[in-house]
Design goal:
The chain has 217 residues and is an alpha/beta fold. It has helices at residues 10-19, 29-34, 40-53, 67-80, 92-104, 116-124, 134-139, 144-157, 172-181, 190-195, 200-216; strands spanning 2-6, 24-26, 57-61, 84-89, 108-113, 129-132, 163-166, 185-188. It has eleven helices and eight strands. An eight-stranded parallel barrel has the order 1-2-3-4-5-6-7-8, surrounded by seven helices. Bound molecules: erythose-4-phosphate.
Length: 217
């Protein structure tokens, strides 16, 4: 399972990359705004800065919601850097644009996916990634992990090549459940990734080993 970090914060991206386990980055307009990135040029430069930190795919989301606008924006983004993946919302013109990008060899991430039906359409259009949002489904009392199992099962049944990129991850148990469900990728903030490191028995065990080591050095 690949690990992407879901942030536009360069320090957090560097920290995850330095850990040696990072396979890519996802961003969205809300995450860019959170970092105070304003204006077209600043946003584009920020995407390039992210690409220069990591080795893998970096999702950059289009703002347009009509076919022509999504295509123009996506083609511009794709030319920015070879690591850019064009992130397109799950809407009618988005699906048409994903099909267009697929035929042009441009990688895509179909975002804001909340149902197996939407995931089937994304795969039929040839999306590189499909992003089901876990946390936002949990927020409305819906079983988000069940959605991952369903999409993985459908994709395996029909040998769809689209990778399941579990998004809107809120805590480490989401990551573990996604691994059990067979997600290809999880994208999450830095904290849930770092939380995977933690176990009280690791801390107390290490404390004891270090205390005992002092007896023979
Ligand atoms: C996915 O690519 C989105 O950027 C992200 O995971 C959304 O997460 P949120 O629901 O925590 O905003």
């Amino acid at each position: 399972m690949k690990f992407f970090i879901d942030t536009a914060n360069l320090d957090q991206i560097r920290e995850a990359y330095d850990l040696g386990i990072l396979d890519g980055v996802t961003t969205n307009p809300s995450l860019m705004a959170k970092e105070g990135i304003r204006g077209h040029e600043a946003v584009m430069n920020h995407y390039i800065n992210i690409c220069n930190i990591v080795d893998g795919d970096v999702s950059a989301e289009v703002i347009a919601t009509d076919f022509d606008g999504i295509v123009a924006e996506g083609e511009y983004l794709a030319k920015l850097h070879p690591q850019i993946v064009v992130k397109v919302p799950m809407i009618k013109d988005g699906i048409k644009a994903i099909k267009y990008f697929t035929q042009k060899g441009i990688k895509t991430n179909c975002t804001l996916v909340f149902s197996p039906g939407q995931a089937i359409l994304a795969a039929k259009a040839g999306a590189t990634y499909v992003s089901p949002f876990l946390g936002r489904l949990d927020d409305i009392s819906t079983d988000s992990i069940d959605l991952i199992y369903k999409i993985v099962n459908i994709y395996r049944t029909y040998s769809f090549q689209t990778q399941v990129l579990a998004a809107s991850i809120r805590h480490p148990m989401h990551i573990i459940a996604c691994a059990e469900a067979g997600a290809d990728v999880v994208t999450c903030p830095l904290d849930p990734i770092l939380a995977l490191l933690k176990h009280p028995l690791t801390d107390s065990g290490l404390e004891k080993f270090l205390a005992d080591a002092k007896k023979f050095v």
